[in-house]
Design goal:
Layout lengths: L1 H26 L4 H8 L1 E2 L10 E5 L3 H11 L4 E5 L2 E5 L3 E8 L2 E8 H12 L21
Antiparallel strand pairs: 1-2, 2-6, 3-4, 4-5, 5-6
Length: about 140
Amino acid sequence: MTYRRWIVVGMAVAVVGVLVAGFAIVNGTFSPRDYVQDRYTRAASRDIGRQAVAYTSSKSPTQVANDLTDAWRPADRYVDGSGVYLRYDDDSVVILPIAAGSVILLENMSTAYPRYHSIVGSYWGWGRGSTVRGGGPGSGK
């Protein structure tokens, strides 16, 4: 009886996995970066060098952030009067207000953290789920 139960549980897990994979393939969003690229308008004139790729939306920064975080939960989120700052494993999504909505900046964490450190400081907690080493004595060893 136990053997049969494990087969049923294994098949159920496999079916759920296939459904999740199928959903991701149909929606075409495998990351927060893909989500933004699929839903917002590319705005190359607002890029910051080669590091931060810009998109625009007619929605407010809060609305864009809520849409994105409903689909992809960030590791950290910081909000202040200047905008919404989302940290994911490898990427950051910074959503800033503009006159007609928002500008959404996609950037690798390796360049985003130094750029926005004065704003996000310790709010983007490097110690929680991050692969970056550093900190106090003995850390990262």
